[in-house]
Structure formats: C-alpha cells, structure tokens
Prior knowledge:
Blueprint: E1 2-5, E2 9-10, H1 14-20, E3 28-35, H2 53-65, E4 68-72, H3 73-79, H4 88-96, E5 105-109, E6 128-131, H5 133-138, E7 147-150, H6 158-167, E8 172-175, H7 179-187, E9 193-198, E10 223-230, E11 233-239
The structure holds NADP nicotinamide-adenine-dinucleotide phosphate.
The site of NADP nicotinamide-adenine-dinucleotide phosphate has 30 residues, from strand 3, helix 3, strand 5 and helix 7.
Amino acid sequence: MRRLYPQPAELAGTADLEDEYAVIADRHVRANFVLSLDGIVEVDGRCGCLGGGADRAAFMAMRAVADVVLVGAGTVRQEHYGPVRLDAAAQERRRGRRQVPVPPLAIVSNRADLDPAARVFTTETKPLLLTSAAAAVRRPDLTGVAEVIACGDQWVDVTVALAALQDRGLGRVLCEGGPTLLRSLVGANLLDELCCTTSPLLAGPGHRGLLGDQPLTDLISLSLASVLEGDDMLLARYQSPGPR
Ligand SMILES: NC(=O)c1ccc[n+]([C@@H]2O[C@H](COP(=O)([O-])OP(=O)(O)OC[C@H]3O[C@@H](n4cnc5c(N)ncnc54)[C@H](OP(=O)(O)O)[C@@H]3O)[C@@H](O)[C@H]2O)c1
C-alpha cells in the first residue's frame, strides 16, 4: 500500500499502517466504511464483497489502535459479527501503548433484540451493550453475556453512550457502522473522522447508502486528511472541522 496524500510514501507493513491510523487525542470518534463507487455499503445485506486486501489491512490497523469498537445492532445481526481478534504482534504493540491487548466491542441497540447465543457473545471479555433502560429491564438474560449499560430511558442517547465509554477509559472509538448508527453520530455532531474505502465497483440502486434513510437538514463539510491506495482501492480519511 502507499500514501498518495499528503506526502507520498510506501507503507511497508502492518506497523506502518497502524502509525498511519494512530490517534493522538485521548477522545476521538472515527468511523470506517467501505463503499462502492456509487456509494453503497451493502449487497444482499453484507459488505464483504465490497472490500479487499487493502481495505482489510486498514480495517485491522484501525482496530489495533482503537480503545473500543462500536457497532450497531443491525450490523451485528446482518453480518453475524464475531468478537474482535488481533494477532499476537498487534496485541504486543498495544501493550507497548498501554492499551489492553484487544479492544472490547460495544454494541448500540434500542431494543436489545440480540440472541445471547450469537457469535458476538462468544468471547472471554464480555462486549458492552449500550441500550435503553426499558430494553435492559426487558432482557435480563443478556446480562450474562454482555455488560449492559442503560444510555437513555426508551431510546439510546448516543452522547450518553459515548460518555459511558469515556468513563470506562474507552475514549478512542472506532465505529464500524452501520449507516443508522453513523447517521446518529453525525446528527449529534459526535464524529471526528470518517474513513472511507472506495472500491472500484458499481452496484446500482436498491442498496443501502452510507447514512441510511434519514435525510440531513444541511450539507456537512469535511476536510481531506489523507489518501492511501492499495489493490485498486482508495482509502480516504476525512476530518470533521466542526466543534464537538
Ligand atoms: N460497508 C460497510 O463498511 C458497512 C459497515 C457496517 C454495516 N454495513 C451494512 O449496513 C447494513 C446494516 O445497516 P443498519 O443501518 O441497519 O446498521 P446499524 O446502524 O448497524 O443498525 C441499526 C440498528 O442498530 C441499532 N442502532 C443504531 N444506531 C442506534 C442509535 N443511535 N441508538 C440506538 N440504537 C441504534 C438499532 O438496533 P435495534 O433495532 O436492536 O434497536 C438499529 O435498528 C448491513 O447490511 C451491513 O452490511 C456496511
């Protein structure tokens, strides 16, 4: 892989890529998506066919530097999400940065409509479940497989959810989707950085786009921070200039 912008450079390996995605601030919200050229994020409910080697490498590097991986329940259900896994070298580099070897997963769900036997719960470290107080009461069975945190009475307030992560020392957040969750982070002005891998594919209409269905009231401007290239894909990093 190579960096095209700002300073062109070859990125020799995984550690280089982790440096590329290193986060200095102790509170930072990054989202990462892979898209087709016409801006779709799934085909038949899955995004695997949009990705490739370079996208996968960046995805793993972003996980390797994050304090927590945040994901919406829709993506967990559709993609049959599993626990976060990192290889031994990435875990060692995390220890060197005084991070736990593997970042925990945090799932956002209003309804907590999740199967306690799902793959995502088959891990030694329980994922966090950021849900409503009403759903927490309705689903006591999930407390055995997740750390259930109420972040609103009937609905999750994403500002409260991110504050709950920060209270646990999980300030560098990597949001892996999906569009509904991204839309709520953008709507609450909580997003610092958007990473988009553009794949050289056209998918046509009838698929989900980056921000789901709920329109924005205004255009939102971002600024380009970097562009990498690998496997015919462009991996762009955009920063949100607005105050948080
Ligand atoms: N291309 C990519 O990089 C990429 C990345 C991720 C996902 N995807 C695709 O996106 C599709 C899923 O889209 P989606 O919009 O359904 O994804 P999503 O945002 O993961 O899931 C939506 C669900 O997550 C929960 N949720 C999300 N935001 C919430 C909030 N602010 N407050 C409370 N609950 C919240 C709700 O769960 P409950 O219904 O349980 O209340 C909601 O129904 C999948 O097909 C997946 O393949 C693509």
